[in-house]
Design a protein that fits this description.
By secondary structure, the protein is mainly β. A hairpin with a 4-residue loop joins strand 7 and strand 8. The radius of gyration is 14 Å and the shape is elongated. The protein starts with a strand and ends with a strand. The mean pLDDT is 97.
């Protein structure tokens, strides 16, 4: 089985920083794009940042310049460094990755359980 496990959420004051981690484990042959989404209460889940296996990145306009996504392909891990946090960044953050398992020829989207980030004003 394949799992994505996030960590690093918490409570921080506006202007502060947090670093989220997401580690994939299990019978993994390869991982394609890795992404961070977030969902605030009453809102739809939105894409925050994405990183391809080669390292190219994409960010939501609301976080560009403040957040940085990175990955270590050898460790099957993706991080989200969040700086200059704002109250509107408060949400549950989810890790997502397209993963191909050993013995298969297709990619499946997997999700982590989510980690809560609260930014106080």
């Amino acid at each position: 089985q394949v799992q994505l496990v996030e960590s690093g959420g918490g409570l921080v004051q506006a202007g502060g920083s947090l670093r989220l981690s997401c580690a994939a484990s299990g019978s993994i042959f390869s991982i394609g794009d890795m992404r961070w989404y977030r969902q605030a209460p009453g809102n739809q889940r939105e894409l925050v940042a994405a990183i391809a296996i080669g390292g190219s990145t994409n960010y939501a306009d609301s976080v560009r310049g403040r957040f940085t996504i990175s990955r270590d392909n050898a460790k099957n891990t993706v991080w989200l460094q969040m700086n200059t946090l704002k109250p509107e960044d408060t949400a549950v953050y989810y890790c997502n990755a397209g993963i191909r398992k050993w013995g298969t020829s297709w990619t499946i989207d997997y999700w982590g359980q989510g980690t809560e980030v609260t930014v106080s004003s």
